[in-house]
Specification:
alpha+beta; disordered N terminus; 18 helices; globular; seven-stranded mixed beta sheet; four-stranded mixed beta sheet
């Protein structure tokens, strides 16, 4: 089964299992083995972009992780290992200058060598304000002059990165960064071939034929907007001998029932489950629960079309944040092992450098379900606004699970909070990203999965002016702490930790966002699929080491 057609997929739940098996007859498989060296997978959303400096989402990160490679990549143990870097860097005495050697045998899929300049070009493009990258902040305060370049106060050529020669890359940091190595496997730190990108112009990364790759696989059969794509093994990859899979075929399937039928028929090799579908597979030996670092929350837009919204009122935000039953939502809608979240930073992400206590446990529950308190906040908020009621739009993805989630929230909030009306607006994932970028919404269920294992990766999202803020959140005391955490605190891990605890409390005391849940994935995976890398931070999956048992 290569690149299933969407029209067939949409109607597949109405067909018999016999038809499903027939359409996959060229992939002979059994309970304990599979004859091909291809995986067939489903995703729940499209690829928004293949331009690494513009990527903001998990799907894009996962695809790029498998067709491209930075200085490091995460291995099966979730540790960064050498990738485009041929050896560990030399580091200056003050810890501010890193010098990397690029692999002599690293090359792009068009035959060009991967050079130090590929990193220089890509990183300059990332922070160049004319690019409009939402991920530029990831370099700010870390690589020298990145923030100033992004603000237009310096030229891109003044960014603290340069090619000493074709295979020697020098990086200058603003200050010591304890997690710098962890950043270098992320999509925004990937290299780009300057000649290729420049020659392609606006066509660059518009589809799989207008992009080049330096990772374990190359992307094929992606038209830039479509609901299917494939990976093919990259024969020119420096570590091609490690890659066992010949290819991977991916189709976007937004209905879990359709995905289950495909899985049961042997058409796909692994899927995510949600809602009541998890219960139907309880006891299935193929079922596993996998923790993630993703936390989902209500994002409250305080200014829309240049005007303050009702959500600029702190009491209205507090009412909504604690006005719905998170545990009931996790148990009845998600049903995949996900945990109710009463804070922003997920459990299991990071530990106190002195006591080894988990961040989430130490900071405790900050916004918990409480109907009476929520109703009191609602009354206060309406009185402050001089209104008897308020009507708000809840922006949602159009997947099956997203629709169920929105309907649950709509029912809970309108039942528990008299005077509140919620209207649901369901749109495709890439449309929601655009609406978020234009800040043309009231509330959305947003989420963030950690890029690296440090609480600041969550906390910095809501600093004033952060490109991911897009909700007009601005808390001066919070901003000052975030700035301190990234500068003067770097030489004092205990003080830095304490300030990160305080920052989260400030953010949630104002209910700038409303935490909902920490995601666990319920996964069905055929027993013959081995060594798929599952990552708590950064991209979700790596297929470099994956294999199919004979």
């Amino acid at each position: 089964m290569k690149n299933m057609k969407l029209l067939s997929l949409l109607g597949i739940t109405l067909l018999s299992t016999t038809v499903l098996v027939a359409c996959g007859s060229n992939n002979s498989s059994s309970d304990d083995g599979k004859t091909t060296k291809e995986l067939n997978l489903v995703e729940t959303a499209e690829i928004p972009t293949m331009d690494s400096v513009l990527n903001t989402d998990t799907v894009g990160s996962t695809v790029m992780n498998n067709v491209m490679e930075g200085l490091y990549r995460l291995n099966l143990d979730n540790k960064p290992e050498l990738a485009m870097a041929s050896e560990e860097p030399t580091i200056s005495e003050d810890g501010l200058t890193y010098t990397f050697k690029i692999r002599e045998d690293a090359q792009w899929s068009n035959g060009d060598p991967v050079t130090a300049n590929d990193f220089v070009f890509s990183w300059r493009r990332l922070v160049n304000p004319s690019t409009g990258s939402q991920s530029a902040y990831m370099m700010g305060g870390i690589v020298k002059n990145a923030s100033e370049v992004n603000k237009g106060e310096m030229e891109p050529e003044e960014l603290g990165v340069k090619a000493i020669d074709e295979k020697t890359l020098e990086i200058q940091l603003e200050s010591k960064v304890p997690y710098f190595k962890d950043l270098l496997s992320l999509s925004m730190f990937l290299p780009q071939n300057e000649t290729y990108v420049t020659d392609k112009g606006n066509k660059y990364a518009s589809d799989s034929d207008n992009a080049i790759y330096n990772g374990p696989f190359v992307l094929t059969d992606w038209d830039g907007t479509g609901l299917s794509w494939s990976y093919e093994k990259n024969a020119d990859y420096w570590d091609a001998d490690t890659v066992e899979l010949e290819g991977i075929n991916v189709d976007v399937v937004k209905e879990t029932s359709t995905a289950i039928n495909l899985y049961d028929a042997g058409e796909v090799d692994t899927i995510k489950l949600s809602g009541e579908y998890v219960q139907t597979k309880k006891g299935d030996p193929d079922l596993e629960s996998v923790p993630t670092s993703s936390v989902f929350y209500f994002k409250y837009n305080q200014e829309r079309n240049g005007e303050p919204t009702a959500l600029a009122n702190e009491n209205i935000r507090k009412a909504i944040s604690i006005g719905f039953d998170k545990e009931s939502y996790a148990n009845t809608v998600l049903q995949n092992g996900s945990l109710p979240a009463n804070g922003l930073v997920p459990e299991g992400l990071a530990k106190n450098p002195s006591t080894d206590e988990d961040y989430r446990e130490e900071n405790g529950d900050l916004l918990s379900y409480d109907i009476k308190a929520a109703q009191d906040y609602m009354k206060k908020g309406l009185a402050e606004l001089g209104m008897d009621s308020v009507e708000l739009e809840l922006l949602s993805d159009d997947s099956e699970n997203a629709k169920k989630s929105s309907e649950f929230m709509q029912g809970q909030l309108m039942q528990n909070l008299p005077g509140l009306k919620i209207n649901i607006r369901s749109v495709p994932f890439n449309v929601r990203l655009d609406v978020n970028q234009r800040q043309d919404y009231d509330i959305q269920m947003a989420g963030w999965g950690a890029d690296y294992a440090d609480p600041i990766n969550f906390l910095e999202l809501f600093k004033t002016g952060n490109s991911n803020n897009k909700a007009s959140i601005s808390i001066p005391e919070y901003d000052a702490l975030i700035e301190k955490i990234g500068t003067t605190d770097l030489d004092d891990p205990e003080k830095r930790w304490a300030d990160m605890l305080s920052a989260e409390k400030i953010l949630l005391e104002e209910a700038a966002i409303g935490p909902i849940y920490q995601r666990y994935n319920a996964i069905l995976r055929k027993p013959y699929v081995k060594d798929v890398g599952t990552h708590l931070v950064g991209p979700e999956y790596s297929f470099k080491w994956a294999s199919i048992a004979e």
